[in-house]
Amino acid sequence: MFDFLFYLITAIYFFIILGFLVGLFFPNKRQSSKKYHVSVVVAARNEEQNIGNLLSELVQQTYPAALYEIVIVNDESDDKTGEIIDKFASQYDNVKHIHVLPDTETGLTAKKNALNQGIQQSTGELILSTDADCHVKPTWIETMVSYFVDDVGMVVGFSQLGDTNYHYSFFGKLQTVDFLSLMAAAQGSLNLNIPLAASGQNLAYRKTAFEAAGGFDKIKHRISGDDILLLQLIRKYTNWKIKFVPSENAFNWTQPEKTIKSFLNQRKRWASNGSYQIRLNPIFFFFIISVFITNLILLLGTPIYYLLNHTIEAPLICLFIKFLIEFLITLKGSFVYQRIDLIKYFPIWAILQLSYVIFTGLVGTLGCFIWKDRKYFQEITTFRTGFE
How much is the pLDDT for 381? Predict the structure, then answer.
């Protein structure tokens, strides 16, 4: 019976990841030459070390300057972020500096409040979003816009941790492998027209799609989720399609976390909305649960299995199957995103992620984390009620 449980859980996980892998072989190639008016909306809080670099890259885009604006929402920064934004705003007519106002009407929290105010004051047909600490290529806007064919309401771009021209620590490389595998799964699912995930580091959507989904209103009580939860809202409440942008001309990047503590805090924040997916997308929730249970049974169930059976043959077989399918999708992703150099770090990552997935899954569900110097404790999602 215990053998059957190991093999069943592993088989479910294997075929889910296999589906994502197959999806990577069917990239979205539909493009349009239509030009839209674009608003790049970025929330910035205490980003004096990064915002200048991002603005320098945004004002040098290949997209016609008359067709895009840069809306930087200053989220109560107490460093020199505001001064840097003002400097660019005085030099470039398409740069806008917005100071976030306390939200007393919509009840939006944290970053979503800042983004919502920026979107409401934007004039573009398309909203492009990235983080203040990200780097974008000169062709970013032009490439992202080109994937908005008539039936597409949101496009998801690739983002990676680290600059390929810079030497990072071993810990930084492990983070990059981890994030690459997540992006590969996201692209694979999107290519199969099963939208599951996205990153706010590289995201774009029609303003009409945002409004049709109710904006952030249905998720206003969630601390994070301006990317993945918004994707699920557009999927569920509109008829717009959601596609992935495979072109390297739209690849963004940001720095990996410097410490294990900050890394785990980041992953806890990402995991904090996992349980909420049962309301938005039960299929995605099932995937999240399968990932958690697979790692749990292989890490904690193996010693129990040995005590009962005096062998670990079945767990080892299941562990091999798990590592194999994860290796294949990571390998394919490393070719797609031109990061084949990362494959040598896969074995260590594969072993370490067993425990980190369990830890962040459990603690993230409790919703306790620090974000931009603000401490949050998010209530655990209950399944008995609908949107509130």
Answer: 45
